[in-house]
Amino acid sequence: MATGLRVTITAAALAGFVAPLIVAVWLVQSTLQSAGEHLATAPDSLPFTFHDPALPLPDLGFSDSEGRAVTLADFGGRVVLFNLWATWCGPCLHELPSLDRLQAVLGGTGFTVVALSQDRAGLAEVGPYWERAGLDHLTVYVDDGMAAGRAIGALGLPTTLLIGRDGRELGRLEGPAEWDSPAALNYFRTLEREP
């Protein structure tokens, strides 16, 4: 009888230890999964600050090279790499060709790059630069009132937001990056394929 009681007490003690351990492991895994695979798969070369949960964004308005009104909602249903830049920003100019190459490789119905100029002179400044730089794959978008930068709380340029298909901000990167490196392309391909 004493042996049976010892076995029962030992089993209860183990269950009291093991059960909370199993629950703790499950909670950690659930938390990591809810933070999204973006945390696990983003390469070191893209040091995004990710949000859990993703953040709502205002429906930012700007215009294209023809002066037509465009909003961020126009890109809904796609993963959007939303980049704020200006012609007076050296790091911005350095990274624009890699954004153009990224758009050339992956731009389409599942993914797009939106590079939004924050130049006060608008298209008068951006148009000539665009031609000189030979940016053939990105569409010209201008925000001469710089409202987008204020609306999203950008601390400086370049600032890039990673926006999910639902229009919410998944993450943010302040500063330049090499957007079309092999690791970055693999990462964005993964995002493009995710439902």
Question: How does this structure look, described?
Answer:
The structure is a single chain. The chain has helices at 2-34, 37-41, 90-106, 123-133, 147-152, 182-193, and strands spanning 49-55, 61-64, 69-71, 79-85, 111-117, 141-142, 159-163, 169-174. It is α+β, with helices and mostly antiparallel strands and 195 residues long. The chain has an 8-stranded mixed sheet. Helix 3 (90-106) links the parallel strand 4 and strand 5 (111-117). The radius of gyration is 23 Å and the shape is globular.
Q: Which helices and strands, and how do they pair?
A:
Blueprint: H1 2-34, H2 37-41, E1 49-55, E2 61-64, E3 69-71, E4 79-85, H3 90-106, E5 111-117, H4 123-133, E6 141-142, H5 147-152, E7 159-163, E8 169-174, H6 182-193
Parallel strand pairs: 4-5, 5-6
Antiparallel strand pairs: 1-8, 2-3, 2-6, 4-7, 7-8
